[in-house]
Design goal:
The protein is an all-alpha fold and 314 residues long. The protein folds into 2 domains: 252 residues, no CATH class; 53 residues, no CATH class. It is built from 12 helices and no strands. α2 runs antiparallel to α4, α2 packs parallel to α10 and α4 crosses α5. It is globular. The two termini are 13 Å apart.
Amino acid sequence: MTVSTYGKEQKPQISRRFLERRAIRLLPMYWIMTALFALELLLLNHFPAWRTYGESYARLSLGFFLGSLTLVPFDHDGSTDPLVGVGWTLSYEALFYLLFAIALKLRIKPLRFLAPAMFLLLAAGRLRGPNWPSFTVLASPLLLEFLAGVVVGEATMRGFRLRNVWGLLLAGAGLAMILVPRTGFPPHRAVVWGVPAAMIVLGISSIEDSFGRFWPQWVLLLGDASYSLYLSHVLVLHAVSRAFEFWHLIPYGVERRGDEFLLALSCVAIALPVSVVLYKTVEQPVTNTLRRRLLGEDLPQAEKHQENSNPVRT
């Protein structure tokens, strides 16, 4: 977001255009997948034998469905997750876009507004009690990971680059830190995962000028399809797990390391091409059609990869 709006703070209606483009990029595909997840729950209610072992499924209701479409966290049966389980991160993304748009509206550098605004939200989040509205869960340290992305983007646009060897070492160190085995959910994920992620992005962006042209087209295509992959991979996981259990390829519940590896490898092998097909046949046509009809513009080829980026999923 920092890269795609850099130097455009003074353009007329930049804030409105920013929100319109992000809404078109984010919401239609999310709404489509929300409908598919709702359909899955309806089918499982009629055919409970299709449920995978060990998986918990939310109780489907009209309020749950409509509430999930808004991306605003709300309590349902003790949870604030939407129908698309991974969609909880999109609530943070929507808040980030809103704050980013306010900075553009004020015609100031986003970092100058986002830094104090996010730290104020973090301070408020520290005071959060059990009776606070559910949407206040967004006042979380996870916001610092968005802020780290803005810092890296600002530094990159200002010309900051590490030497290739240092960029590779920094990205490699970040990857190694993320791969360190852990038990349970880390209490400070902004440090445990956010800092290594920022190291990877800064390291790779530093060497992009030297190595970016060598990326094969299929890798770039997977990057373009990352949003479809993000939203659809859980459905693929459910389908593959059901198939494995039905054909007795694994016992009910993944108990052995070999079963876990086989299931993970199969899900990756299926989820990647499914996401590319979904991107080519649904996401890209819908996004471009809406941009043409609502904004009077198509997605410029030069901006394609910038517009397709997503800080949470990355």
